[in-house]
Automatic annotation (TrEMBL):
It comes from the Bacteria. The chain crosses the membrane at residues 40-60, 66-82, 112-131, 138-159, 189-207, 214-242, 262-286, 306-324, 344-375, 396-425, 466-486. The keyword Metal-binding does not apply. Keywords: Membrane, Transmembrane, Transmembrane helix. Residues 455-564 form the STAS domain. Gene3D superfamilies: STAS domain. Pfam families: STAS, Sulfate_transp. This is Sulphate transporter.
C-alpha cells in the first residue's frame, strides 16, 4: 500500500503565483462599490499631484511637457494594471532627469524613445529571469548617495529658469561648466521670474505646514500662472516655449530602428533599466511598509517593462514607480491598483478638456516645483547619519554622491556597489574565525592508596591529534586567513579534525583551501576528518573533489575521535588561546 509523501520546508512558488498582477488578486478578493469610491478619490488626489510634476520633470529632462503627461498616462496605467504592487504609482521621475537629458543631448528624441523601449524589454527580461530579488541588494549608502547627487543636479539645472537668465549660447550640461556660465549671466536675471519662482516655493512650503492635505503643487502652479496672466508679466510660459499641449494622445508609433541606432542607445537603455528597477522596487517596499502588504518583485519589474514599452509607443520616456506619488496614493485611502489606473484616466481627461490652460503655466513655476522636489530628494538626515556612522559607509556614500554629480550616474551606482561589496566582504571575513584545540588526557581518580599525583598538562597532552573549529561563513574573504592557520599543522601530528558545525556555507575558494590541505596531508601521511558538515556543505565539497580517501567525514568530533581509536568527547580537548583566530 502506497503512503502519501509529506514534503517539509518552503515550497517553490509557481509561475502564476510569482507573476499574477496585483490587480487580478484584488479583483479575486471581491471588488465592491466602496472600494471603487476609495480608489477614485485616491486616484484624483494623485493626479492633481502628478499633473504639474510630470510636466516639470519632462521640461527639465529636455522633453516637452506633453511627453511628460503621455508618460504618466500610458506608463502609469500599465504599471498599476500589470505590476506586482497594490499601490504603486508609475510615471516620470525626478531621478531620471539626468539620464534622460544626457540621452536627448547625445541621441536626440528618437534615440530617447528607442532607449526607453529597449529598457522596457530589459526590465521584463529581468523580471522573468527572477532577478528582482537581487536588485534589492543595492547598499543603502549607494541609494542615498546617488539620490542626493541627482537632487543637486536637478536644482542646478533649474537655476536658469528660477532666475530667468538669458544665455547667449546653450546651457552646458556638466555641473563644473554650467556654474561659471550661470554666474557670468547673473546680470540678465528677470525680477518677475524670480518673484514667480519664489512665490511657487513659498506657497508649496506654507501649504505643506498649514494645510498638508491640500494639493500644494497644483495650487502653487495655478496661483502663479493666474498672476502671470492677469499681470501680463514678461516671463516664459509653456505656450511660448512649447506651443501648448495637444488635446489628445498621439498615434502609437516607434522611430526608425536600425542596428547602429540600437547599439548606440544600448548603454542608455541599460542605465534606464537599472535605475528603474531600483526606484520601482524601493517605492514598492515603501508602500509595503506603510500598508503591511507584500509586493511581487519580479511581477513588478515585468509590469514596469511593459509600461516603458507602452510609453515609448506613445512618444513618452522612462517610467518607474514614484515614491512620493505612491505614498500619496496610500495616504489618500487607495484600496488597490484601480486607483493608479484612475489617476492615469484623470490625467487623460485634463489633456482632452483643459489642455489650452496649460499654455499659461510659467516655466518659473515648474522650476519652483522641481526646486522643492530636489530639496525633498536630498535625504538630509540619512546623509548626515551615514557620514557619522562609519568610515566605510561614509566612503561609499561620498564616492557615489560625487561620481553622480561630476561623472555619470551609472558609474556612480557601479562604483558605489563595488566599494560597498568590498567593505561587506571585509566585515564578513572578520566574523569568521578558527579555534585550535589540543587533545588532553582525562582527569581520572587515582585508585591507589597513595592519593592523587600532581596534574601535568604538558605531559598529559596528546601531540598526535589537532582539532580546529571554524565558525562563520567560510568563503573567499576569509579563506586566506583560515588557510594560514590550518597550514600550521606539523609533521608530529597524525590526525587533523576540522569541525564545520558552525559554518553556514562554504564557497569554492574555501573548498580549494581544504583541498590543498588534503593534498599536503596526503604527502605527510596525515589523516583529515571533517565533522559537522551539512548536506549542502558536503555537496559543495564533493563538487570540488573533496571526498574519501582525501578526507574522511564524521557527524561529530566524538565519532571522529572514536574512529581514531580515542575514547572521549568534547571534554577531551581544551582551547589553545594562541591560535584562537586568524585575525
Amino acid at each position: 500500500m502506497a503512503h502519501p509523501t509529506t514534503t517539509f520546508g518552503p515550497q517553490e512558488p509557481s509561475f502564476s503565483e510569482l507573476f499574477t498582477p496585483k490587480l487580478v488578486t484584488v479583483l479575486r478578493e471581491g471588488y465592491r462599490l466602496e472600494h471603487l469610491r476609495a480608489d477614485a478619490i485616491a486616484g484624483l488626489t494623485v493626479a492633481i499631484v502628478a499633473l504639474p510634476l510630470s510636466m516639470a520633470i519632462a521640461i527639465a529632462s529636455g522633453a516637452s511637457p506633453a511627453q511628460g503627461l503621455y508618460t504618466a498616462i500610458i506608463g502609469g496605467f500599465l504599471v498599476s494594471a500589470l505590476g506586482g504592487s497594490r499601490f504603486q504609482i508609475g510615471g516620470p521621475a525626478g531621478a531620471f532627469i539626468v539620464l534622460v537629458a544626457a540621452t536627448v543631448q547625445a541621441h536626440g528624441m528618437d534615440g530617447l524613445i528607442l532607449a526607453t523601449f529597449i529598457s522596457g524589454l530589459i526590465l521584463a527580461a529581468i523580471g522573468f529571469l527572477r532577478l528582482g530579488t537581487y536588485i534589492k541588494f543595492i547598499p543603502y549608502p549607494v541609494t542615498v548617495g546617488f539620490t542626493a547627487g541627482i537632487a543637486v543636479i536637478i536644482f542646478a539645472s533649474q537655476i536658469k529658469e528660477l532666475l530667468g537668465l538669458t544665455l547667449a549660447s546653450a546651457e552646458p550640461g556638466a555641473l563644473l561648466e554650467k556654474l561659471p556660465v550661470l554666474w557670468n549671466n547673473l546680470p540678465t536675471a528677470n525680477p518677475a521670474t524670480i518673484a514667480l519662482s519664489a512665490s511657487t516655493v513659498a506657497i508649496i512650503v506654507a501649504l505643506k505646514r498649514l494645510r498638508p492635505r491640500w494639493p500644494g503643487l497644483l495650487i502653487a502652479v495655478t496661483a502663479t500662472a493666474a498672476a502671470a496672466a492677469l499681470l501680463a508679466l514678461p516671463v516664459s510660459t509653456i505656450g511660448r516655449a512649447f506651443g501648448g499641449i495637444p488635446g489628445s494622445l498621439p498615434t502609437p508609433h516607434l522611430p526608425q530602428i536600425t542596428i547602429e541606432k540600437m547599439m548606440a542607445v544600448m548603454p542608455s537603455a541599460f542605465a534606464f533599466a537599472l535605475l528603474g528597477s531600483i526606484e520601482s522596487l524601493l517605492s514598492a517596499v515603501v508602500a509595503d511598509g506603510m500598508t503591511g502588504r507584500r509586493h511581487r518583485s519580479n511581477c513588478e519589474l515585468v509590469g514596469q517593462g511593459v509600461a516603458n514599452m507602452g510609453s515609448a509607443l506613445f512618444g513618452g520616456f522612462c517610467v518607474t514607480g514614484t515614491i512620493a506619488r505612491t505614498a500619496t496614493n496610500v495616504r489618500s485611502g487607495a484600496h488597490g491598483p484601480v486607483a493608479g489606473m484612475l489617476h492615469a484616466l484623470f490625467l487623460l481627461m485634463f489633456i482632452v478638456f483643459a489642455a489650452p490652460l496649460a499654455s499659461f503655466i510659467p516655466l518659473a513655476s515648474l522650476a519652483g516645483v522641481l526646486a522643492v522636489v530636489a530639496w525633498n530628494m536630498f535625504e538630509k538626515q540619512a546623509f548626515w547619519t551615514l557620514l557619522k556612522a562609519s568610515r566605510g559607509d561614509a566612503a561609499v556614500l561620498l564616492v557615489t554622491f560625487l561620481l553622480t554629480i561630476f561623472r555619470d550616474l551609472t558609474e556612480a551606482i557601479i562604483a558605489g556597489f563595488a566599494l560597498g561589496s568590498v567593505l561587506f566582504i571585509h566585515r564578513m571575513s572578520q566574523t569568521t574565525a578558527v579555534h585550535a584545540h589540543a587533545l588532553v588526557a582525562e582527569d581520572e581518580a587515582d585508585a591507589t592508596t597513595g592519593g592523587r599525583t600532581a596534574y601535568d598538562e604538558a605531559a598529559a597532552s596528546d601531540p598526535d591529534i589537532m582539532i580546529y573549529r571554524i565558525s562563520g561563513a567560510f568563503f573567499f574573504g576569509a579563506a586566506a586567513s583560515i588557510g594560514a592557520v590550518l597550514d600550521r599543522i606539523s609533521d608530529r601530528h597524525r590526525a587533523l579534525i576540522i569541525d564545520l558545525d558552525a559554518v553556514p556555507f562554504i564557497d569554492s575558494t574555501a573548498a580549494n583551501t581544504i583541498e590543498n590541505l588534503g593534498h599536503k596531508a596526503g604527502r605527510r601521511g596525515l589523516t583529515i576528518l571533517l565533522t559537522g558538515t551539512t548536506e549542502a556543505l558536503r555537496a559543495e565539497l564533493f563538487a570540488q573533489g573533496i571526498r574519501p580517501p582525501m578526507v574522511q567525514f564524521e557527524s561529530t568530533i566524538e565519532t571522529a575521535l572514536a574512529r581514531l581509536n580515542l575514547p572521549g568527547g568534547t571534554e577531551r580537548f581544551n582551547s589553545v588561546p594562541a591560535a584562537a583566530s586568524p585575525h
